[in-house]
Design brief:
Layout lengths: L4 E2 L3 E5 L6 H6 L6 H13 L5 E3 L7 E5 H10 L9
Antiparallel strand pairs: 1-2, 2-4, 3-4
Length: 84
């Protein structure tokens, strides 16, 4: 998973980096598509202590504490993973 931003609390990544291509395609298009994708990413990140992260210069992020980053990287999809 790509590390986008480092804060004093942990590492931040964009919520789309947490989802696989299949999960992104499974959500139907519409007005609330981004909200559904964001909620799905938050649910996937919770077991690795991932929480919402919003600032003025970085919206739509998920923050993982330093202690959980390696575990999250090993178990959540890599940005380059594509369905076979």
């Amino acid at each position: 998973m790509k590390k986008e931003y480092k804060t004093f609390q942990g590492y931040v990544t964009h919520f789309l980096n947490v989802l696989t291509e299949e999960e992104k395609e499974s959500v139907s298009s519409g007005v609330d598509r981004i909200e559904k994708l964001y909620a799905m990413a938050i649910r996937k990140a919770k077991p690795y202590k991932g929480t919402r992260f919003h600032t003025l210069n970085f919206g739509g992020g998920i923050i993982f504490p330093f202690c959980c980053w390696e575990n999250a990287c090993n178990n959540l999809p890599k940005k380059s993973e594509k369905p076979a």
